[in-house]
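In keeping with the milestone schedule agreed at the kick-off meeting, the structural modelling team has produced records for the first pair of proteins. Each record is given below as a sequence line and a structure-token line. The laboratory manager (R.T.) confirmed that both were archived under the project's standard naming scheme.
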Amino acid sequence: MNKLVHRLAVCGAVVVGAALAPAAVASAEVTVPFQVNPTPYGNPNGSVDSPPGNCAVVVGEKPGIARVTGFNSGCYLISAVRWLNLSTGASGTSPMSDGLFGLPHEAVVPSGPGQVALVGVPFAPTTVPGFATFDVP
């Protein structure tokens, strides 16, 4: 009986420690770049007059929140972001802001912590959607 109590106490301590360990780890801000490729007139090879949209997902600023924003030349081709948290099953759509009046062109993704898959929905039907996967702390 004494061994059983000891084993249960050790197992309980391991479970509690494992649950609290992620909260104790300091998470740094991480940027995950992804690209949205325009295909004007259905041309799958793209076009020299339509550069790709370089987007990025920034995680680690706030727990459970990711931010989709422009990276270098901007994320101008995306109108909304559809996301799915693969760890919890939560899903949703976040609209991109219009980027007017000095505000950045971005979307806030309140996915919660876990592995997240994201699809950048383009404005035009002739643009290939952007795709990214990342881990939200």
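The second protein of the pair:
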Amino acid sequence: MTEQSEPQTEGKPAAPDPVVVREAVTRQAVLGALLDHIKDAYKNAKTTADDLLDRSYRAGGTTKYDALLPDGTKVGSSSRSGGEREAQVIDDEVFRAWVRDHFPTEHVVEFVPAQVVTAVRPGFAGKVLAEATAAGTAKYVDPGTGEVHDVPGVELKPSRAASHRLTYTRGSKTQPAGGRDLVAAAWRAGALVEHLPALAPAATAPVVEEAEQ
């Protein structure tokens, strides 16, 4: 035995049964090892699925695919969430000059020792970028005159990449089990071994009875 214990002293809490402790540690070790296999396999599966889904979208615009068990039962689906773009200042000097010429009150000139610093008021810059993001183009409408400006030095750039969201089916009257439970049942039945061969039970050789002489 590897468990070590100290003699019981007065006032010291009773130690749990070493067998119970060992079983708990063993359970943690077993599940941790299995989890490592599953995490690595899932990471590879997600990378492959995301790549194929992106290629499918670029080729034909398909944004959703169902996940089916070998018998055709739907257990979930993967849906594409489009990326987002937002207006960003890509040329500070060009943007600053535009603000100076068209909105001089939003253009700040500060005198500091040995230099003059010019800048756009942060609040105004944020307002221009927010409006351009909402419009989907680098334009800003002067609230005072209604004039629409093409804002130089600003472009819309990706701020969030497209992604894919996997969801499982929910139980219903016709199919009480949800997608996760259906997958678990199919795994227990041995129908999904190909997806995680490292954890598949070893095949047992059939027992051949000897014929009576």
